[in-house]
């Protein structure tokens, strides 16, 4: 699933490619993927973009918002790119294809494709009040200035669930996903199974900083295109943070610090990677 750095990378691409463009037509190929009236969106100019955690918003001139959630396999592809699902060895395909769910056409005839193999992702039409209500149960964004040591520690003290599971809970912290939770816990020398409320203030400060640093690092690298190749940039290129994973998807490989083989377990149904020696 695209996490905070991947969605932020998509947002920055869209800022460069579609900001100021007017949506002339929306073709909905999968009704499940588009929620709301497309008629009140057609003819509207995109005036800004924003992001909260893994949710991406396109703000329109009439005050409405197109809220995107990529979920597990969503892609946003711009222009006449020949990239997207499915991803054969050469990583190319013609769009729209069998995974294209929505096609946005702009007044300059360029297009934006919303692809989603598994149909879990969606685009919603909301007004400002509806957006606020929809996001009221989402935690503070994990690279926001409001994501402070105090807030982070207080949230951890609320639950006895494993620290790994809590990091993935979007009602606690918006944007943290499996990649960055695994690697931040490794850098912080914290075992992923420890109950969140047993994390000390000192540990919480270190962990929060590692989370922020990792996500900023990943944004610099254009996000992570993991082994499944599901996440790509809107222009079809790949992220490069996957070359900098510390423990994520490195099961059986030597720890970068102590050479102990990285172990893989499941916590809350999610693959969890850690070093048994460094993260006792």
TrEMBL record:
One of its GO terms (biological process) is base-excision repair. GO terms for molecular function: 8-oxo-7,8-dihydroguanine DNA N-glycosylase activity; class I DNA-(apurinic or apyrimidinic site) endonuclease activity; damaged DNA binding; zinc ion binding. The keyword DNA repair applies. PROSITE patterns: FPG_CAT (PS51068), ZF_FPG_2 (PS51066). SUPFAM superfamilies: Glucocorticoid receptor-like (DNA-binding domain), N-terminal domain of MutM-like DNA repair proteins, S13-like H2TH domain. The keyword DNA-binding applies. Its cofactor is Zn(2+). Residues 2-121 form the Formamidopyrimidine-DNA glycosylase catalytic domain. Residues 246-280 form the FPG-type domain. InterPro entries: FPG_cat, FPG_Glyclase, FPG_N, H2TH_FPG, Ribosomal_uS13-like_H2TH, Znf_DNA_glyclase/AP_lyase, Znf_FPG/IleRS. It catalyses: 2'-deoxyribonucleotide-(2'-deoxyribose 5'-phosphate)-2'-deoxyribonucleotide-DNA = a 3'-end 2'-deoxyribonucleotide-(2,3-dehydro-2,3-deoxyribose 5'-phosphate)-DNA + a 5'-end 5'-phospho-2'-deoxyribonucleoside-DNA + H(+); Hydrolysis of DNA containing ring-opened 7-methylguanine residues, releasing 2,6-diamino-4-hydroxy-5-(N-methyl)formamidopyrimidine. NCBIfam families: fpg, PRK01103.1. This is Formamidopyrimidine-DNA glycosylase. It comes from bioreactor metagenome.
